[in-house]
Amino acid sequence: MTESTRELRSALVEAGHRLTGPRIAVWEVVAGSESHLTAEEIAEAVRSADPTVNLSSVYRSLALFTDLGLVRESNLGANEATHWELAHPDEQFHLKCKACGRVEHHTGDLVTQIESHLSDHHGFKASRVELLVTGMCAECSQSHSSNT
Amino acid sequence: MTESTRELRSALVEAGHRLTGPRIAVWEVVAGSESHLTAEEIAEAVRSADPTVNLSSVYRSLALFTDLGLVRESNLGANEATHWELAHPDEQFHLKCKACGRVEHHTGDLVTQIESHLSDHHGFKASRVELLVTGMCAECSQSHSSNT
DNA sequence: ATCTAATTGCGAACCATTTGCAATAAGCTG
DNA sequence: CAGCTTATTGCAAATGGTTCGCAATTAGAT
Fold first, then answer.
1. pLDDT at A108 over 90
2. Which residues of A touch B (CB under 8 A)?
């Protein structure tokens, strides 16, 4: 049993759930990936290890992991399927390049600033911040412009 | 013809589109509402003026208006239908109260700060910023806590 | 090894959204 | 105003992501 599976088990057991094959498989995929994956992509990767795992189990595992705070769900654009990734704090937000399609994380204290501002001046207690910035990444801006 | 319809017409004509009944109806609803509406809600309101307007026409009108920059599409939570509202600048972001469900706008320069930071330090040129803060609004925090 | 409830696979259901197509209507043009 | 062309519409069916009901399976406790 890998280290990451051990972590999963303790999280599950603590919340009164069972450690099962499909859950382990889904977890390994999400935990082992740097990127944001759709349920279908996760299912595909899972099936390469165990072809019997069903798509609905993938969805169910992801929903459970989300509840437990193990993974994070995000919408990276209207009409796009939901993407999942390993849980990360709110301060880490998403930068999406509309040219190459890559989605990166960016960490800054700006999100924290927003939270304190809202709390201090407007009595709004933020529990979750979702920030998606769409635009052109440095590399794509270069290649799309005729430079000196 | 109302003032708002006139605005719509010039935007449509300028882009080579026609001013039609369904488009006017959809526009009046969106422009006349303070809140974020789903396509279904818009269709319902439209039908009270003209019951022959079809849901697909509502979708098509909204898609067109979005292209033209007249309305803004937003995801206010995973597994929720898309919501539309009159176009507004990025600096105006969304505050969603998880208790009362209300979605408000909040305007601040924080979004602009993020844009300049990304541009100056990371070469990332933002074209659109979507910021959704979920939490408890001032009123709900009060009523949910036993205060002094 | 046995037992029970949680979990799974499966297929069907669901919901928001999109699409193909024939019928309609907007806005020229004369 | 009538005629014409093409964009737009209504309809119904298709789509795609996600959820659900249920019988079969399996994790983990005894």
1. no
2. 73-75, 78-79, 82, 95, 97-98, 106, 108, 110, 113-115, 117-118, 122-138, 141-142
